[in-house]
Amino acid sequence: MNIFKNKIIRDLFHRKSFVISISILVFFVLVAIIGPMTTPYRNPYSSSEYYVAGPYAVPSWATIFPQYKDYPPDMSTTLNLTSTSGNGYVTYNGSYYVVYLKPHQSENLTFTLFWKYSYPYSFTFSTTVIPYTTQGVQVNFYTENSSGYKFFLLSYVPIKYQYEYNYPTNVLNLNKTNSISITPSSLNSANSPYVASLPISQQALLGLQFPIELLGKSGPTSVMISVINIGSTSAKVYIAPVHFSDLGRSFGILGTDDNGASVYAEYVIGARFDLELSVIASIIIVGIGLIVGLVAGYVGGKTDLVLNSITDFFLTIPGLPLFITLETVFIVTGIAANISRAELVLLIIGGLSWMGTMKIIRSVTFSVKSRTFVEASRALGGGTLHVIRKHILPNILGVVFAQLAYDVPVVILIESGLDFLGFGIPLSAFPTWGNMLGAATDAASSANSFAWWWVMPPGLSIVLLSVAFYYFGTALQEVLSPFKVRGE
Amino acid sequence: MRIPTRYIIKRVVERFLLLFAIINFLFFLFNVMPYIFHYNPADFYVPLTYKGISRSSLIEAIDRQWGLNKPLYIQYVDYIKNMLTFNFGYSLIYGEPIANLIMQALPVDLIILVPSLLLSTGLAIVLGLISVAKEGKLTDLINSTVAIFTYFIPAFWIFAIVLYYFGFELNWFPTNIAEAINGTSGITYVASLLKFASLPIIVLTILSYGVRMILTRSYGVEANHSHFILYLKARGIPSRKILLKHVMRNSIIPAVTRTGIDFAFILAGAVFVEEIFNFYGMGELLLQAAENLNIPVLEAAFYFINLYAIIVLFAVDLIYPFIDPRVKYE
Predict the structure, then answer these.
(1) DSSP state of A487
(2) Per-residue confidence at A441, pLDDT binned at 50, 70, 90?
(3) pLDDT at B151
(4) CB neighbour burial string for A354-375, b if at least 16 within 10 angstroms, e if fewer
């Protein structure tokens, strides 16, 4: 059976606003369901998932814009040996370059990176050195930027030779595997001849400055490994091809935040949470509002007065301060000790946002109740439950469904606002759209940088999703209401 | 039009019963809950030291001052007495009487909220009537859609963006109040204050006109289709005159009522404006008090806000029949 033969469905799909809104809703539902599966990150707010790229990395696709054109992505590549010089002998055994050196001979191996970007956030050159000898070899690491400026970064010598040098050296273990990596943040005046030669004021900034000095311009950048046999016996040194990796300044679909965590992962995890929470809260809200409103509107009289007064009572107390006060009280008293913060927020929002819905349900119940067919049904002996089930509910169904849809954006806005102010889901817990906006705003005021890829997606999504729910609800109300019922 | 005394009495009683209920709710939340759950609320809002007095003796003194160690019914009587006489006490954290705190916070919100409320009502009525005049046309569609979109824009998000862009990037507006009013006096003080406040006022206006515009539009459209408008049209009265005189009178009522209700809740402050523009008003006062469970401040602020709200709502009840002659006092 074709569902489009159903009159209601057909009516709905004849409305442009409904078709557009349902497409937006389907899009967000897909993002919430499929999104988290498409990213390897489970919680970008835990420090283990920081620095997947440099902080404030722009989205990869943004590199089509001229101002981000040269931003490097995350890269990981093994460099090629481009030249050798010296009086030793070099062979390649498939995984290592093997350098044979007689006493006092030396050999330079140059690996070149063809860099075509501006500077990265950070980089790492890594290699493995296995020196086979009885006395000693010195292994020096130089890098040369595209302008030809050479940096003497690290020097490795066996421990017994270290006192012979007037620059900082590191320990080279003979006949063992030495894993060596060069990264700006680990270079300091105690291990690097280059850093030791800098004035102290510049040493502190090296982690940020050195990537700019070495890889600031595009062009061939090379790492030269110089091996010197300083002993009196011959030596055989295995050197693995140099591996280059970097933390780039462009990353993924939505870039990174101030911790270098994936914004896309935050966004999709936040989308799932926001949708779940707001739909559940909306059901709670409409549940309470429907019961209270139906009873007040149908029974009327004293009951109505009492229920309506209670509703007015909650409407009069300012909402946001009350949410936060109650949250604090519940936490202090330990009432909330056994439930998570998300559940607490859900209960408080759900329990204190039903008043508007109640008023609307009450007024439509009133108007349906005063219709002649309800009177007729009662005159024929229909009981209260029968009348409500058979006559009232079907006629206010449109309004009820519309309220379900209308309350979702309300909840999203309240929840995001609480998160933004720091009273919702804590920043240490997990990303939500509100948390993203709160963190982005804090970062924007401190770093004086506006990360549009971080600020815009959650905000625009809140707007789009809310508007979609609004039009969705309006369409449902119009199609499902058998006659015009006028709410607020 | 005479207002029947019976109606006034009924309304006053209703509204003040509501206020009484709220006072009782606050007492339950802040005095009975600690009793049930065995914690001393003074622990939360007493600073570590105050003028060299140790915390424990401060707490003792507070207990004595507020009678927190007395039985609940005596606390209750004291509490009601304090609220009715506006005796809110002294905040040790802020080092000031709480009534002063509220009075200092109030103007901040009034400067921003009153102008934006008036502006947004005006904007809503103008745009709503344009939509009524162009009903069903593209102008109407765009107009209404924009109104709905603006309604759903998260305030904190758009404030942060406009502050960053117009404040920091373009430097059109001062970014904090101290920078704005520093070293000014007299006319320049008012001018610079206005310059600082204008950005939040404009944005808040745009964010809040949506509901009123949609209300104006839907009531206007309904009026436009009614028989008396048809009759006026048939008589050959220019449509511009019909719109501005007859349709307008019928369509602005809900928007104006709504403004009255919003005006009642103005004292709750504009939390997000204050938070983002570092503009210390009622919203921030409540927020900080709620976070630290600063009970004297919370009690005073909630009571004050609700008292004001109830008075304004009562005034709206009285004024309403003047705005909409079809409504009778009942």
Answers:
(1) -
(2) confident
(3) 92
(4) bbbbbbbbbbbbbbbbeeeebe
Mean pLDDT of B315-321: 83
Of B113, B123, B170, whose CA–CA distance to B147 is shortest? B123
pLDDT reported for residue A370: 85
Cβ <8 Å between B160 and A444:
yes
CA dist A44 and B221 (Å) reads 50
Our measurement of the distance from residue B297's CA atom to the centroid of its chain's CA atoms, rounded to an integer in Å, reads 18
Measure in Å the smallest separation between the Cα of A324 and chain B Cα atoms: 6
- As beta bridge partners, residue A246 has A75, A123
CB atoms within 10 A of CB A427: 16
Two structure tokens written together for B129: 């009537």
**pLDDT grade, residue B181 (50/70/90)?**
confident
Q: Which helix (H) or strand (E) holds A154?
A: strand A150-157
Chain B interface test: which of A21, A320, A488 (most B C-beta within 10 Å): A320
Length of chain A: 488
Would an 8 Å CB–CB cutoff place B312 in contact with chain A?
Answer: no
Distance CA A299, CA A388 (A): 11
pLDDT score for B1: 61
Q: If you count them, how many residues does chain B have? A: 330
- Report the range of poorest mean pLDDT among A62-71, A408-417, B61-70, B282-291: B61-70
pLDDT of B330 strictly over 70: no
What pLDDT score was predicted for residue A488?
37
Of B25, B161, B286, nearest to A321 by CB-CB distance is B286
Q: Residue A352 — very low, low, confident or very high, per pLDDT cuts 50/70/90?
A: very high
- Span A456-468, pLDDT tens digits: 999 999 999 999 9
> For residue B285, what is the DSSP state?
H
CA distances to A156, A183, A351, A415, B278 from A322, rounded to whole Å, are 65, 51, 12, 14, 22
Rounded Cα gap, residues B256 and B236, in angstroms? 30
DSSP string, A345-403: HHHHHHHHS-HHHHHHHHHHHHHHHTSHHHHHHHHTT--HHHHIIIIIHHHHHHHHHHH
B265 contacts in chain A (CB < 8 Å)? 318
The pair of three-digit structure tokens given for residue B23, joined into one six-digit string: 């006072």
Both tokens of A380, joined, read: 């024929």
The CA distance from B240 to the nearest CA of chain A, in Å, is 28
Report the pLDDT value the prediction gives residue B122, as an integer from 0 to 100.
Answer: 94
Task: Please say whether the beta carbons of A221 and A145 come within 8 A.
Answer: yes
The structure tokens 């105690």 sit at: A190
Determine the Cα–Cα distance for residues A448 and A444; give it in Å rounded to an integer: 5
Q: Percentage of residues in chain A with pLDDT exceeding 90?
A: 57
Beta strand A219-229 with A137-144 is antiparallel
Please report the pLDDT score of residue A447 as a whole number. Answer: 53
**Three-state DSSP class for residue B87:** coil
pLDDT digits 0-9 by tens, B47-62? 777 777 777 777 777 7
Digit-coded pLDDT (tens) for B131-141: 999 988 999 99
- Token pair 């591996």 in the structure block, residue: A243
Element (H, E) at A170: strand A170-171
Chain B closest-CA separation from residue A466 CA (Å): 6
Contacts with A, B 268-307, CB within 8 Å: 268, 271-272, 275-276, 283, 286-287, 290-293, 298, 301-302, 305-306
Tell whether the model's pLDDT for residue B246 goes beyond 90. Answer: no
Q: Closest by alpha carbon to B194, among B183, B181, B211, B178?
A: B181
Among residues A169, A178, A79, A57, which one has the least CA distance to residue A124? A79
Residues of chain A with C-beta less than 8 angstroms from the C-beta of B153: 459, 463
